[in-house]
Amino acid sequence: MLKIVYPISCGIDVHKKFVVATIATTNSNSVTTYKTKQFSTFTSDLIQLRDWLSLNNCNEVCMESTGKYWIPIFNILESTCRVTLANPKFIKNIPGKKTDKRDSIWIADLHKHGLVRGSFIPPKQIRELRDLMRYRVKLIGFRSSEKNRLQNSLTVSNLMISSVVSDTFGKSASAIIKYAIEHPDNINVDFTKFLHKSMLHKAEQINASMQGTISNEQCSKMNVCLNHYDYINTCMSQLDETISLIANEFTDSIKIVETAPGITYNSAIGIISEIGVDMSVFPDAKHLCSWAGLTPQNNESAGKKKSVRISRAGVYLKPLLIQCANAAIKDKSYPYFRYRYESIKKRRGHKRAIIAIARMLLTCIYNMLSKNEIFDEELYREYLNSARKPLNTNISKMILFLESKGFTISHISDNELTP
């Protein structure tokens, strides 16, 4: 018989318009009684749910993370109950006679035995910061889409300025494009007056690249793209102000994370918004890396290993860490990460190597936040110096390799063995 961990527990089946809650009460004889009640997701009814739980002395609540619908319930119960949020695939009921009431009873039964693995729920301020940072990522995507649309219109209109300048949205290029849109009928215009002094040597090429024709349709489209692009930049400025106000409360942690190679101020805020500042919620760095989707999976059956690719977890954190990893391997101040990347890349390729570097960075961040210490470069410098030294043990492998190729090794002196 399974041990009863929570004698009084509640399982909640969550939906958009209503929730079904079941309180499972187990007495000293291991007999369980159930009370089930349905509530709407309006705030007044959720307060009634909270009062109903308090009336039955229930402080342990388990519910599935259905979309965003669990958040209003969690907001009401957070102060009075210990809420366990479960991934639906871990508490899925046996198919058959499946109803909302039976689902809530099933969740309550699993939770009373302590069989539900709870998901990580950061504090409210971190949740607010996470929501803003994720929205900022979306805005950056929208802005990039508008830049691509404008670039497509320029190409269709035979305006090939992107082949001459490195940034189509730089100060000089933007002024040239805006003038071309405002005066689509002007031909053979000298755009030298719009160029920065560092670009004057490209004046002839730029004038040649702008010998195109903008139709009325493309002109209207480009105007919309530019207006939307400017509006998105304004929205991002407003969002950044709000993010800065929240991030000021985690200044010490941000400064610690920022000392790691390849991590900027905005990257540090993004990482903290995903993992928080309290590392005690993760048993160790390996659990954090697995939660972020940076470790291979175990998938073995009948002695055969199947796909062990990384999971799809960490849809916001993982891309951010990969960007930081790409910056870290290019940072000449920290050659260790470049050395590790090159050594893994030879055997496993670029993609696996960059994932390995991202995991190393997250492991560093875990230990830095746990110990409240900045990044210690000397630890990696000592390891790098020892790793680069040739080892005597490799000589025997070299001899075997040469003999396999048909060479005969006659004699090796002790002086030749010394690296």
Automatic annotation (TrEMBL):
Give all residue intervals belonging to the Transposase IS116/IS110/IS902 C-terminal domain: 255-341
Pfam families of this UniProt entry? DEDD_Tnp_IS110, Transposase_20
Tell me where the transmembrane regions lie. none
GO MF terms listed in the record are: DNA binding; transposase activity
GO biological process, any = DNA transposition
Ranges of residues in domain Transposase IS110-like N-terminal: 10-155
Name recorded for this polypeptide = IS110 family transposase
- Origin species, per record, is Clostridium chromiireducens
